[in-house]
Amino acid sequence: MADDLIWHRIQFAFTITYHYLFPQLTMGLALLIVVFKTLALRSGNERYNEVARFWARIFAVNFAMGVVTGVPLEFQFGTNWARFSSFAGEVIGQTLALEGVFAFFLESAFLGLFLFGEKKLGPRGHLAAATALFLGSWLSGYFIIATNAFMQHPVGHVLGDDKLLHLADFWTFVNNPWAFWQYAHNMTGSVITASFVVAAVGAFWSLLGKHAEHALICLRVSVVVGLAASVLISFPTGDVHGKMVAQYQPVTLAAMEGLFEGGSHAELAIIGQPDVNARRLENPIVVPGVLSFLAYGTFGSTVQGLNDFPVDEWPGNVELLYYAYHIMVGLGTIFMVVMAASASLLWRNKLHESRRMLWILMLCVPFPYIANTAGWWTTELGRQPWLIYGLMRTLDGASPQVNTGNVVFTTLGFAGLYLALGIVFLYQVMKIIDRGPEAAH
Length: 441
Prior knowledge:
Helix content: over 70%
Strand content: 5-15%
Number of helices: 15
Number of domains: 1
Shape: globular
Radius of gyration: 23 Å
Largest sheet: 2 strands, antiparallel
Order of helices and strands: HHHHHEEHHHHHEEEHEHHHEEH
């Protein structure tokens, strides 16, 4: 059973990690397209409309990939996690259904109107379609986050006589405070991804000397939005979400920080290597008292360490959790520096002339994807050994009749299929970028 569980987790981790490469850009681009359309309407500059149409084409290809790679995840609730679905299906089924039936169709319908209805809708109607597309994609994101937030901090449920979870209060479930801050943090991360992608394309065009006006628009909007998002990802969204982890999952916080011995004036580890067997953080660079302040608001607050909890309550892979968390935080800091430097050059009207910064913006494209992936790994690894925190352990949620051989075989199938889809996706996106913005016909 242990081997079966490992492969169930590997398959779900692989498929959902690959899938989330696409929604994070979709949700961020939806906001930026609204910004482009708003600026087009206010300024009367047709170049903003052309940039909006260009990014809508990339949005459509990216959206299609998100749909294709998202469908298997829904089935895996039954194939890989049948006992979990049976136990919690009445609760989490609410938000999963709302995401699929309501938010997804809203997003799909208005994507079609935005792509093909500009002439019929007119400028204001086209902006309205872009806004509805944005609302649909972000509403879809909220329903998914609310589902995950229930697994992190379950509220609004009761445990029935049948030993299954039942929905007791829909609004308590949907308005989970954990969901609000996790959602704010997640969506800010998606805006960072979109901002860096848009900036990279603008930098690419500038370096080639192509589409100069469109490139400058991409750089201006993406740097301003990206700088704001890079600040917000740290404070307040990351700060408050971290305080919620400290309050409701203190053992997770200890593992994230590599803190084995708890106490007051807890040190914040900037870097170090956790040695779980020896129960210590090796070669640490620390800032005294800062972890206590960040977690609980005062430097003298007591922070529990891993040694304060039974080993069977520790996250299953402390090392991977620690490094994922520090990669996320480290990259988030780099994003602020890069966007601040770009904004400084933009303010002086020199960004489009600074080849060094243009190269930096272009080469930064993979890193928001890495940071968002590391953030989700932190979330999911940190919840272990629980599938639903405090209610169901991961060991008890897998499908008992699906053996390791079947899971390994289908995982290899997913890997091959996703490799082929990825190649087609990159080819289509590069074709769109090479063609560049086009005027309406």
